[in-house]
Amino acid sequence: MATTLPLTDVSPARPDEAGACCSPLVREAADPETAVELARVFKALGDPTRVRLLSVIAAHEGGEACVCDLTEPVGLSQPTVSHHLRLLVDAGLLAREQRGKWAYYSVVPGALDRLGALLTGAAG
Amino acid sequence: MATTLPLTDVSPARPDEAGACCSPLVREAADPETAVELARVFKALGDPTRVRLLSVIAAHEGGEACVCDLTEPVGLSQPTVSHHLRLLVDAGLLAREQRGKWAYYSVVPGALDRLGALLTGAAG
User: Fold this and answer.
1) What class is the A32-120 domain?
2) B86 in reach of chain A (CB within 8 A)
3) Which of B51, B60, B93 to mutate to test the interface with A (most CBs of A within 10 A)?
4) Whole-prediction pTM value?
5) Which value does ipTM take for this structure?
Protein backbone atom coordinates (compact mmCIF):
# COMPACT_ATOMS: atom_id res chain seq x y z
CA MET A 1 0.00 0.00 0.00
CA ALA A 2 3.03 2.27 -0.20
CA THR A 3 2.41 5.43 -2.10
CA THR A 4 4.78 6.18 -4.96
CA LEU A 5 4.74 9.92 -4.36
CA PRO A 6 8.29 10.95 -3.53
CA LEU A 7 8.34 12.73 -0.20
CA THR A 8 10.36 15.59 -1.66
CA ASP A 9 7.51 16.48 -3.99
CA VAL A 10 5.07 17.35 -1.25
CA SER A 11 7.10 19.29 1.25
CA PRO A 12 9.54 21.54 -0.56
CA ALA A 13 9.97 23.83 2.44
CA ARG A 14 10.98 21.08 4.87
CA PRO A 15 13.98 22.14 6.92
CA ASP A 16 16.50 19.61 5.68
CA GLU A 17 19.22 22.08 6.48
CA ALA A 18 18.37 21.87 10.17
CA GLY A 19 19.37 18.23 10.26
CA ALA A 20 16.81 17.38 12.92
CA CYS A 21 13.77 17.12 10.67
CA CYS A 22 12.73 14.30 8.44
CA SER A 23 13.98 11.38 10.46
CA PRO A 24 13.74 8.25 8.32
CA LEU A 25 11.03 5.63 8.64
CA VAL A 26 12.49 2.67 10.50
CA ARG A 27 9.50 0.42 10.13
CA GLU A 28 6.26 0.27 8.24
CA ALA A 29 3.32 2.18 9.67
CA ALA A 30 -0.08 0.53 9.97
CA ASP A 31 -1.63 0.53 6.50
CA PRO A 32 -4.97 2.32 5.99
CA GLU A 33 -7.00 -0.89 6.27
CA THR A 34 -5.35 -1.82 9.55
CA ALA A 35 -5.90 1.73 10.78
CA VAL A 36 -9.63 1.45 10.07
CA GLU A 37 -9.78 -1.85 11.93
CA LEU A 38 -7.81 -0.52 14.91
CA ALA A 39 -9.93 2.61 15.08
CA ARG A 40 -13.03 0.42 15.22
CA VAL A 41 -11.67 -1.42 18.26
CA PHE A 42 -10.60 1.79 20.01
CA LYS A 43 -14.01 3.30 19.29
CA ALA A 44 -15.60 0.36 21.10
CA LEU A 45 -13.57 1.43 24.14
CA GLY A 46 -14.40 5.11 23.71
CA ASP A 47 -17.32 4.82 26.10
CA PRO A 48 -17.10 4.95 29.92
CA THR A 49 -19.67 2.17 30.43
CA ARG A 50 -17.76 -0.22 28.20
CA VAL A 51 -14.48 0.67 29.87
CA ARG A 52 -16.09 -0.05 33.25
CA LEU A 53 -17.51 -3.36 32.04
CA LEU A 54 -14.19 -4.55 30.64
CA SER A 55 -12.45 -3.47 33.80
CA VAL A 56 -14.96 -5.17 36.09
CA ILE A 57 -14.68 -8.40 34.10
CA ALA A 58 -10.89 -8.23 34.25
CA ALA A 59 -11.11 -7.72 38.01
CA HIS A 60 -13.01 -10.97 38.51
CA GLU A 61 -11.17 -14.16 39.31
CA GLY A 62 -9.95 -15.73 36.10
CA GLY A 63 -10.77 -12.57 34.12
CA GLU A 64 -14.30 -13.86 33.62
CA ALA A 65 -17.71 -12.75 34.85
CA CYS A 66 -21.33 -13.74 34.49
CA VAL A 67 -23.58 -11.14 32.91
CA CYS A 68 -25.60 -11.39 36.12
CA ASP A 69 -22.65 -9.85 37.97
CA LEU A 70 -22.27 -6.92 35.61
CA THR A 71 -25.54 -5.02 35.85
CA GLU A 72 -25.07 -3.78 39.40
CA PRO A 73 -21.57 -2.26 39.00
CA VAL A 74 -22.67 -0.09 36.07
CA GLY A 75 -26.22 0.53 37.28
CA LEU A 76 -27.85 -0.37 33.98
CA SER A 77 -30.43 -2.89 32.87
CA GLN A 78 -29.33 -6.29 31.65
CA PRO A 79 -30.41 -5.62 28.02
CA THR A 80 -28.35 -2.42 27.98
CA VAL A 81 -25.38 -4.18 29.55
CA SER A 82 -25.71 -7.02 27.03
CA HIS A 83 -25.70 -4.49 24.19
CA HIS A 84 -22.45 -2.94 25.43
CA LEU A 85 -20.93 -6.38 25.95
CA ARG A 86 -21.84 -7.37 22.40
CA LEU A 87 -19.93 -4.37 21.04
CA LEU A 88 -16.87 -5.44 23.05
CA VAL A 89 -17.20 -9.01 21.74
CA ASP A 90 -17.54 -7.71 18.16
CA ALA A 91 -14.38 -5.68 18.70
CA GLY A 92 -12.50 -8.82 19.72
CA LEU A 93 -11.87 -7.62 23.27
CA LEU A 94 -14.18 -10.03 25.06
CA ALA A 95 -15.15 -13.65 24.48
CA ARG A 96 -18.68 -14.82 25.26
CA GLU A 97 -19.68 -18.27 26.39
CA GLN A 98 -23.22 -19.41 27.09
CA ARG A 99 -23.56 -21.82 30.02
CA GLY A 100 -27.11 -22.81 30.69
CA LYS A 101 -29.19 -19.67 31.06
CA TRP A 102 -26.26 -17.34 31.72
CA ALA A 103 -23.70 -15.79 29.44
CA TYR A 104 -20.14 -15.50 30.69
CA TYR A 105 -17.72 -12.92 29.39
CA SER A 106 -13.95 -13.12 29.56
CA VAL A 107 -11.19 -10.75 28.55
CA VAL A 108 -9.42 -12.01 25.41
CA PRO A 109 -5.82 -12.51 26.56
CA GLY A 110 -3.40 -10.11 24.96
CA ALA A 111 -6.06 -8.27 22.95
CA LEU A 112 -5.03 -4.88 24.29
CA ASP A 113 -1.33 -5.63 23.98
CA ARG A 114 -1.86 -6.61 20.35
CA LEU A 115 -3.62 -3.31 19.69
CA GLY A 116 -0.68 -1.38 21.02
CA ALA A 117 1.78 -3.52 19.07
CA LEU A 118 -0.11 -3.08 15.81
CA LEU A 119 -0.30 0.62 16.42
CA THR A 120 3.31 1.28 17.24
CA GLY A 121 4.83 -1.46 15.13
CA ALA A 122 6.39 -3.25 18.09
CA ALA A 123 5.12 -6.54 16.70
CA GLY A 124 5.75 -5.73 13.08
CA MET B 1 -16.58 4.45 45.43
CA ALA B 2 -17.84 0.98 46.40
CA THR B 3 -21.59 0.69 46.38
CA THR B 4 -23.22 -0.63 49.49
CA LEU B 5 -25.93 -2.50 47.62
CA PRO B 6 -25.53 -6.17 48.49
CA LEU B 7 -25.09 -8.14 45.28
CA THR B 8 -27.78 -10.58 46.34
CA ASP B 9 -30.38 -7.82 46.20
CA VAL B 10 -30.03 -7.23 42.50
CA SER B 11 -29.71 -10.67 41.06
CA PRO B 12 -31.90 -13.10 42.98
CA ALA B 13 -31.93 -15.63 40.16
CA ARG B 14 -28.16 -15.89 39.86
CA PRO B 15 -27.08 -19.53 39.53
CA ASP B 16 -25.12 -19.86 42.72
CA GLU B 17 -26.03 -23.50 42.77
CA ALA B 18 -24.06 -24.09 39.59
CA GLY B 19 -20.82 -23.17 41.34
CA ALA B 20 -19.36 -21.62 38.20
CA CYS B 21 -21.08 -18.26 38.43
CA CYS B 22 -20.25 -15.30 40.58
CA SER B 23 -16.50 -15.64 40.67
CA PRO B 24 -15.13 -13.24 43.27
CA LEU B 25 -13.48 -9.92 42.49
CA VAL B 26 -9.74 -10.37 42.85
CA ARG B 27 -8.82 -6.73 42.34
CA GLU B 28 -10.48 -3.39 42.13
CA ALA B 29 -12.01 -2.38 38.82
CA ALA B 30 -11.35 1.05 37.36
CA ASP B 31 -13.56 3.51 39.21
CA PRO B 32 -16.10 5.58 37.26
CA GLU B 33 -13.82 8.64 37.07
CA THR B 34 -10.93 6.59 35.71
CA ALA B 35 -13.32 4.95 33.24
CA VAL B 36 -14.38 8.36 31.92
CA GLU B 37 -10.75 9.38 31.52
CA LEU B 38 -9.76 6.13 29.81
CA ALA B 39 -12.75 6.33 27.47
CA ARG B 40 -11.66 9.82 26.47
CA VAL B 41 -8.23 8.54 25.47
CA PHE B 42 -9.64 5.57 23.58
CA LYS B 43 -12.08 7.87 21.82
CA ALA B 44 -9.14 9.92 20.58
CA LEU B 45 -7.91 6.72 18.93
CA GLY B 46 -11.32 5.82 17.55
CA ASP B 47 -10.55 7.52 14.25
CA PRO B 48 -8.59 5.95 11.36
CA THR B 49 -6.68 9.16 10.57
CA ARG B 50 -5.44 9.51 14.14
CA VAL B 51 -4.48 5.85 14.27
CA ARG B 52 -2.50 6.34 11.04
CA LEU B 53 -0.80 9.46 12.38
CA LEU B 54 0.24 7.80 15.63
CA SER B 55 1.45 4.78 13.72
CA VAL B 56 3.43 6.84 11.20
CA ILE B 57 5.08 8.80 14.00
CA ALA B 58 5.95 5.59 15.84
CA ALA B 59 7.45 4.22 12.62
CA HIS B 60 9.89 7.11 12.35
CA GLU B 61 13.37 6.83 13.80
CA GLY B 62 13.24 7.68 17.49
CA GLY B 63 9.43 7.56 17.49
CA GLU B 64 9.35 11.20 16.46
CA ALA B 65 8.28 13.04 13.32
CA CYS B 66 8.00 16.57 12.02
CA VAL B 67 4.50 17.72 11.17
CA CYS B 68 5.90 18.39 7.70
CA ASP B 69 6.35 14.61 7.30
CA LEU B 70 2.82 13.76 8.32
CA THR B 71 0.60 15.45 5.76
CA GLU B 72 1.57 13.23 2.84
CA PRO B 73 0.99 9.82 4.48
CA VAL B 74 -2.58 10.71 5.40
CA GLY B 75 -3.31 12.88 2.36
CA LEU B 76 -4.72 15.78 4.37
CA SER B 77 -3.88 19.46 4.73
CA GLN B 78 -1.51 20.58 7.44
CA PRO B 79 -4.24 22.40 9.45
CA THR B 80 -6.35 19.23 9.44
CA VAL B 81 -3.38 17.10 10.42
CA SER B 82 -2.48 19.57 13.18
CA HIS B 83 -6.03 19.36 14.50
CA HIS B 84 -5.84 15.56 14.73
CA LEU B 85 -2.41 15.76 16.33
CA ARG B 86 -3.70 18.20 18.93
CA LEU B 87 -6.38 15.70 19.97
CA LEU B 88 -3.70 13.02 20.39
CA VAL B 89 -1.58 15.40 22.46
CA ASP B 90 -4.60 16.30 24.61
CA ALA B 91 -5.20 12.60 25.17
CA GLY B 92 -1.65 12.20 26.45
CA LEU B 93 -0.59 9.89 23.62
CA LEU B 94 1.75 12.29 21.83
CA ALA B 95 4.14 14.96 23.02
CA ARG B 96 4.65 18.11 20.96
CA GLU B 97 7.81 20.15 20.74
CA GLN B 98 8.25 23.32 18.72
CA ARG B 99 11.67 23.70 17.10
CA GLY B 100 11.97 26.82 15.00
CA LYS B 101 9.12 26.91 12.55
CA TRP B 102 8.27 23.22 12.80
CA ALA B 103 6.41 21.21 15.39
CA TYR B 104 7.71 17.74 16.20
CA TYR B 105 5.53 15.02 17.61
CA SER B 106 6.70 11.98 19.53
CA VAL B 107 4.92 8.99 20.96
CA VAL B 108 4.72 9.21 24.76
CA PRO B 109 6.62 6.12 25.93
CA GLY B 110 4.42 3.56 27.63
CA ALA B 111 1.20 5.56 27.16
CA LEU B 112 -0.60 2.68 25.47
CA ASP B 113 0.75 0.12 27.93
CA ARG B 114 -0.48 2.25 30.80
CA LEU B 115 -3.95 2.37 29.26
CA GLY B 116 -4.10 -1.39 29.11
CA ALA B 117 -2.78 -1.70 32.65
CA LEU B 118 -5.32 0.75 34.05
CA LEU B 119 -8.07 -1.05 32.20
CA THR B 120 -7.28 -4.58 33.22
CA GLY B 121 -5.78 -3.83 36.61
CA ALA B 122 -2.38 -5.28 35.73
CA ALA B 123 -0.76 -2.23 37.28
CA GLY B 124 -3.22 -1.90 40.13
Assistant:
1) mainly alpha
2) no
3) B51
4) 0.77
5) 0.77
